[in-house]
Amino acid sequence: RETGLAVGASCARLWAGLSAGLSADRASPLLFSSFRPDALQGARESAPTIPRALLVDSLWPGWFETAQALECVAVVSHQELMSASLVAQLHAASLRAWCYTVNEVASAQRLLRLGVDGLITDAVDKFSPASTLS
């Protein structure tokens, strides 16, 4: 929680000028994401206008309720956890479905067919949006 409080306060202070200049229909350029709900809670307390995403490497009891209670905008799961039913559950709750760490074209295509909203990769040189969507 202390880390979330500190990071949230620093980001809110550093980005205050930019955020003030954003139009109401433009999303924040920042996103806090963490596997630790307590860190997200701290960030929520110190920077409530910066969106949050819960990272999950398993669907532990209460993960969904936790994401909702923290007012997350997304759940970012390990790519192997993502399924059509999970995408549907997240979308029904107005949450975005993102996956990490997607470094293979076939994996990206599978996830995009499921309807995920975003992919996190550390291998942008391996595929492009055009090749992933074909």
What would your notes on this structure say?
The chain has about 130 residues and is of the alpha/beta class. Helix content is about 45%, strand content about 15%. It has a five-stranded parallel β-sheet. Helix 4 links the parallel strand 2 and strand 3. The radius of gyration is 16 Å and the shape is globular.
Throw out a few tags for this protein.
134 residues, alpha/beta, five-stranded parallel sheet, 7 helices
Number of strands: 5
Q: SS-based structural class?
A: alpha/beta
> Mean of residue pLDDT?
88
Cα end-to-end separation: 43 Å
Return Rg in Å: 16 Å
Largest sheet: 5 strands, parallel
Strand proportion, as a percent range, falls in: 5-15%
The number of helical elements comes to 7
Main-sheet strand order equals 1-2-3-4-5
Low-confidence segments = none
Q: How are the SSEs ordered, and which strands pair?
A:
Blueprint: H1 2-14, H2 16-21, E1 32-34, H3 37-46, E2 52-56, H4 63-69, E3 74-78, H5 84-92, E4 96-100, H6 105-114, E5 118-119, H7 129-133
Parallel strand pairs: 1-2, 2-3, 3-4, 4-5
Helix pairs in contact: 1-3
At a glance:
The chain has 134 residues and is an alpha/beta fold.
